[in-house]
Amino acid sequence: MPIAALLLIAGSAAAHAAWNIRLKGTGDPETAANLAVITPGLLAGVLVLGAWGAGLVQISPRAAVLGLAAGAAELAYFMALARAYASAPISVVYPIVRGINPLVAVGIGTVLLSEQLIGTQPWGVLLIILGLVALRPPWQGLRQGISGAALLFTIAAGALSAGGSAIERLGVLEAGALPFLGLTWGVTGLLYLLVAQRRGLVWKTTPNLALTGSLIIGGHLLVMAAFAIAPLSVVVPLRESAILLVSGWGLLRAREASSPMQILLRVSGAVAIVSGAVLIALG
């Protein structure tokens, strides 16, 4: 696997973990998610449309349709994730979302997109998925009293994340990472603006919201660049290494690991994920 892809995925994972932590740290994650992406999303859309109008980039009808689909999928994903965060802790929601995402993405990549895992890559994907489960077993959310609605939104967010990634992989191959990023987030920003107006929210931004939105879109740019040189079924499981950062934050800052067994599971999960990443990289 190209070293460039590994570096892009690592950067995307770090940005992904950072904005999830920032989003959960707000008093109203749903509103924060709504307002954070409007300004940078619309800016990205205007830039790519301007470049297209000037003849600097080419956007085919197929790329435009994929951009609309990806933008709608992003909106649905963020709305589901924000609703889940509004009623359940990040330590419950995030691992379930990140655990579902690679399973669905690998299935889409291998079955629908005809991607092939070569050499040691299948074992690497398996280790990453097992590591995610060890870090935070998804079923523990049920023991912690997560509501049925929160669990439903959490599962939906995981499936939407994988579906959106599959569309992005196709869109990047069609139009390139930067043009397709602008298409996708221009649509997402516009849709979120409509949602904000319907909810009676004032379209405004703050330094904190701007930083969160920049992390969201910047992380997606990195992963889209990775999609240009590596398959969905490899990129998405590797990106889920972001769970290491979130798990570490929960362990050190929120003191969520309260027993030696929980600490052992987290360490074992971390080792499994790192080992899986190495196997995927070696191919």
Order of helices and strands: HHHHHHHHHHHH
Mean pLDDT over all positions: 82
**Number of beta-strand segments:** 0
CA(first)-CA(last) distance: 6 Å
- Cα gyration radius (Å): 18 Å
Could you tell me the strand content as a percent range?
A: under 5%
Would you tell me the structural class of the helices and strands? mainly alpha
Shape: globular
Give the uncertain stretches in residue-range form.
none
How many individual domains? 1
Helix content: over 70%
The number of distinct helices, counting runs of at least 4 residues, comes to: 12
The biggest beta sheet reads: none
Structure characterization notes:
The protein is mostly helical. It has one domain (3-282). Helices cover 81% and strands 0% of the residues. The protein contains twelve helices and no strands.
